[in-house]
Structures are given as C-alpha cells and as structure tokens.
C-alpha cells in the first residue's frame, strides 16, 4: 500500500503574525517557516501505518516555491520515503490545490491520501473535501483515530458534541485532527539521510492543468486590539457595570 501525504510550508505557529502595511497579506520576509502542524500529524500517521506494515511506501507532496523543499526534507527526515514538489510562484486557492493533487494522485496511484484538516494560514478546511469530490473517493475528515482492515479504514472523527466512527472503502481521503497522534522529532542521523532521499521537482505548467482564480483577497487586516480590564471595589459596582455598561444582565 502506498500513502500520499500533502504538506504545506507556513509561518511557524509560534511566531507572532504581522500584517503587511498595504493590507495585501501577512508578512513572510525574514520570518521563520515550518510545516503546517496538521500536515505534520498526517505525516506521523502515515509513518505509523508503515511501521505496522500496513503501508509499504510514504510519499510526501507540496505545492509552492523552491523554499518548500526545506519542508519536504523535514518530512523525509521524519521518515518519508520520497518527496514531490510542484513548483509555482502563484498563490493558489483550495480548489486549484485540489486539482493539482488530483493530478499527482492519478500519477502516483496511492491507496490512502492523508492531509491536515486545514492549514493555519488560510484555515479554509476545504482541500480534502474538494479532492475527494474530484477523485470520487470516500472521505473521512477530522480523524482522531485510524484503523486499517482488509480493504477499508475505520476512522473515528471529531464532531460537535462527541465522536463518530465510520468505515470507508479504499482508496480514500483522510484529513487529520489534533488528537490523532503526537508527531516525532527528526533525529540527526535521519536528517543527514534525508539529503540522499529522492525529491522530484516538477513545474506546475508541465501538468497541463487549466486553473482559474475564483477568489480575490480584497484586504487583510489585524484583529482589533483588546482593551485592558479594570478593577472594581465592590460586588455592587461590578453588577452595575455589567448591567449598564456591558449590558449582559
């Protein structure tokens, strides 16, 4: 069984985000970048399935500039077998990303596609579902537990108010949630070995896809600064402010 894992290079989740002065996006120059945390969980789950001898090969794919090779090398250092970079300078929306991944899936023929449920930069939570529709494959989203049986997966999903367990036939798309696992750290020997693992780069134009822009970002702005709290000297004053100023009573 082959598993394909989609990963994305994003701003490190521990870095404070700054919006560009012209409001066109988030500042990324001289900012620490990292693999999207949900994608790292997807990589970890693929490696665990291989360690259980359920999968025989783990392939990671990313879409972006040449700098995304660093993210792919990190996935290879964690234990992935090989990597594919679809090289482009364009900022792509979810549907176009799904169409590109559809082409990669058709070429690679994996039995499972693992993806993070969303990226922390766009927070769209759309690509796994769109890819499932394009491929006409079953999907299991927000996975917190994955078990593989003969020809199908049993997936426990995080839903509002509880958990849902479903069965999907292979091949299938699975998007990962936070509680699925805890990603491992890359050891120094594995980081060195990753430099020798195959990383294939292909230009987006060579895939022969016709991609249209359906979404235009008009403006990006930082959230309003939260005002500081105040201290009150009595319960009566607190109740008065909640009633007349906050108007929550």
Please give the structural blueprint:
Layout: E1 2-6, E2 9-11, E3 33-35, H1 37-51, E4 57-64, H2 68-78, E5 82-87, H3 94-108, E6 112-116, H4 127-135, E7 139-149, E8 152-159, E9 162-169, E10 172-176, H5 188-194, E11 199-203, H6 235-244
Parallel strand pairs: 1-4, 1-6, 4-5, 5-11, 6-10, 7-10
Antiparallel strand pairs: 2-3, 7-8, 8-9
Helix pairs in contact: 2-5, 3-4
Largest sheet, strands/sense/barrel: 9 strands, mixed
Going by CATH, the architecture would be: 3-Layer(aba) Sandwich
How many structurally independent domains? 1
Reported by name, the CATH topology is Rossmann fold
Per CATH, the superfamily is HUPs
Proportion of beta-strand residues:
25-35%
Provide the gyration radius in Å.
21 Å
Tally of strands: 11
The CATH top-level class label: Alpha Beta
Instruction: Give the termini distance in whole angstroms.
Output: 60 Å
Q: Helix content range of the residues, please?
A: 25-40%
- Look at the helices and sheets and give the structural class: alpha/beta
**Can you write the helix and strand succession as a string?**
EEEHEHEHEHEEEEHEH
- Shape verdict: globular
What ranges have pLDDT less than 50 throughout 5 or more consecutive residues?
none
Question: Which strand order do you get reading across the main beta sheet?
Answer: 9-8-7-10-6-1-4-5-11
Mean pLDDT: 93
Number of helices: 6
Detailed description of the structure:
The protein has 249 residues and is of the alpha/beta class. It has a single domain (2-244), classed as Rossmann fold. It has helices at residues 37-51, 68-78, 94-108, 127-135, 188-194, 235-244; strands at residues 2-6, 9-11, 33-35, 57-64, 82-87, 112-116, 139-149, 152-159, 162-169, 172-176, 199-203. A 9-stranded mixed β-sheet has the order 9-8-7-10-6-1-4-5-11, sandwiched between helices. The protein has a two-stranded antiparallel ribbon with strand order 2-3. The longest helix is centred in the N-terminal third of the chain and has 15 residues, at 37-51. The model has no long low-confidence stretch (mean pLDDT 93).
